[in-house]
Fold this protein.
Amino acid sequence: MKKTTFLLTALVAMSGFSQQKTTGVMTLSNNVPMTANFTLDNATSLVTLVLTGPSDRWFGLGLGPSVVDGFGMSDGDALVFTTNTTPNLTDRNFQGTGQPPQDAAQSWTTVTNTVAGTVRTLVLTRALTNADGGDNAGQDLQLPYATTNSIIIGGVRAGSASMGVSGHGGGSSGGFATGTFTTLGVEDFSLNASTVFPNPSNGRFTVKTKTSLDKINVYTQTGAFVKEVTVNNGATEAEVNVEGLSTGIYLIELQNATEKSWKKVMVE
């Protein structure tokens, strides 16, 4: 009986691990300095978007379910980051050829906003599906967990640091990418699935895991010990500050009670 109970418990635990799927990092075409990584979580009904873009000017991301060679003006969902608005991140929609207007309801929540050199990294969350809070045409792209298998995105960034958000002819440059969602397995919830961002960094970076984290050790590539960071209460996220180090690649050792894993981080 005990063996049967243990097996059932293990199966339930493993089924819980299969409640997420991700696109992985999507890099935009045309050398546009933007990336996006979408993770859908069936258990929490949330999508997490890790978005990178230029740190010194506005940039935007268009979300589309099936476009191939770009976005028409009726494709709907858009995000824009600019320091000229409050909040800096706004949920918008395409209407005609002018500046994309803000949605009536702002669906995305900014979890973190970090800058390293010329790269800004945003970690954002939103409900997988929602009623758009009164938006005129249901502009928010719906991402139901069971049926969302791919996504196409279009990104654009201002041509200069002084340029405001504009419509056609604004001197911006854009690119596109297609992502296919793959289901995360048990391995994806070990320390091996941890992420380090921003990377490259200026010496300040964040380690995010899918399991508990107890300690982070930083080493040079030759194995010289640099720093130990203690993580309190088995948290799944920790900040590391090694500013002042020489530029180059460093190794970070992640530890908890049952695992060890190694990652690389570049300091610029």
In short: The helical segments are 2-17.
